[in-house]
Amino acid sequence: MATILFLMRYSLDHPDNFTTKFNGQLAGMRALGHTALCIGVRGGEMCLMEGDQVTPLQKNRFSSLPGYRHTKLYWDLMSAARRVIAARRVDAVYLRYKPLSPNVMGMAKLNRQKGGKLIVEIPTYPSQKEPDHRPLRRALLALTERLLKRLSPLVDLFTLVGEHNKEGRLLGRPAINICNGVEPDLLPMRRVNTAPGEIHALLLASVSRYQAYDRLLKGMAQDRAASENLFLHLVGGDVDGAVEQLKEQAERERLHLEIHGPLYGGALSDLFDRCDVGVGTLGLYRKGIDVCSVLKVREYMGRGLPFVYSGEDDMLSTPADFMRRVSNDDAPVPAAALTELALSLKGQADVPRRMRAYAKEHMSWQAVWKTVLEKVALDA
Fold first, then answer.
1. Contact at 8 Å (CB) between 269 and 242?
2. Is-cis flag, bond preceding 99, omega within 30?
3. Among 256, 248, 267, 251, which Cα is nearest to 231's?
4. How far apart (Å, rounded) are the C-alpha atoms in residues 301 and 376?
5. Residues 104 and 147 sit within 8 Å (Cβ to Cβ)
6. CA distance 354 to 219
7. Using an 8 Å Cβ cutoff, are 201 and 275 in contact?
8. 3-state SS class at 112
9. Confidence (pLDDT) at 370
10. Cα–Cα distance between 352 and 304 in angstroms, integer?
11. Cβ 105 vs Cβ 147: under 8 Å
């Protein structure tokens, strides 16, 4: 079986919005019988993660500087990866794209010299449709794009999450579309809220204008009867001032919106248990895309919370009564889209179990990895 080294910004100290995805990727690869390694950040050091074993690799000298997690961390990550590749057999490196640091080239060349494959995931494809208005961030992303072009001759396969790539090529190298998966057994199953009356909706995200939750607030304002007993719970950090804008909009329209900030662990699970319905990303059109593979939808599915979503998701192509698709445009999202879905399933104890079964059948990382490894001849 193969040894796969995953390279992404994985925090051992503080979970973030990507932790569930990363843990699912590792678990899915291990479930196929392969060895899945990952380099994580813990305090001021890089560590090698192999199952439950965490081994320090190197100190990060600049980890206390402001902005480290968005800049110098990636240099340290590539440096630590070289240590691992030099010390043991690695059959493939799975690198999450953006940002990249210049020493990614040295890591990739060493990996190639030792016979390893290089797989690069583009988590939002096409990446240029994901704008950023912060000058420093824009400069870093411009450097990253140049580095990706230099790196491409060493890439054995690109995996693309997003719009369909009909040519099967990117930067002259093989490419395939994949969807984000989910491993439900890593997530606590939601306990069904049986309380009558109020309907509670979970809005889980790094909150930005691209989530387009303002569409839902507009729809609620247009239908007071449907929104009277609808309570929204906004969970996540503020990316671009959208939280304050949503707060002002809700206050102006006298709507029920509770802002929780980032939640993890037991606090997040408790809120899942209180809620009857989840809300996916509603603003893909604001990025100029329609095909999606939204992480929060995977978490709703894995935990067993019915949800509404927008856009085209290949893993949701099999219809089910616990999800409802709304338009991917600027039209207000009707409050009834949430309330009718929630009321149709409220109190049904088997819903979480059915949703997790759907996730295992249609959305597993194991199925994703089988396809990926076949493409790079590591499926034996």
1. no
2. yes
3. 256
4. 30
5. yes
6. 29
7. yes
8. helix
9. 97
10. 4
11. yes
Q: Cβ of 149: how many Cβ atoms within 10 Å?
A: 10
Q: What is the mean pLDDT of each run of 10 residues along the chain (380 residues)?
A: 97 90 97 98 96 96 85 94 98 95 97 98 80 69 91 98 95 98 96 90 94 98 95 95 97 98 95 98 93 95 98 96 98 98 95 98 96 89
Domains contained in the chain, CATH given: 3-181+364-375 (3.40.50.2000), 185-362 (3.40.50.2000)
Distance CA 305, CA 261 (A): 20
Q: Is 243 helix (H, G, I), strand (E, B) or coil?
A: helix
Q: What is the pTM of this model?
A: 0.92
Selection from 92, 11, 16 nearest residue 295 by Cα:
16
Q: Using an 8 Å Cβ cutoff, are 174 and 256 in contact?
A: no
Residues 5/90, Cβ–Cβ less than 8 Å: yes
- Alpha carbon distances (Å) from 264 to 93, 150, 272, 352: 29, 38, 11, 20
> Which residues lie across from 34 on neighbouring strands?
none
Q: Round to whole Å and give the CA distance between 93 and 293.
A: 22
Residue 117: the pLDDT is 98
Kindly compute the dihedral angle of the four CA atoms of residues 343, 347, 350, 356, in this order, to the nearest 10 degrees. Answer: 60
Q: Are 363 and 181 a contacting pair, CB within 8 Å? A: yes
Q: How far is CA 243 from CA 213, 254, 258, in A?
A: 10, 16, 11
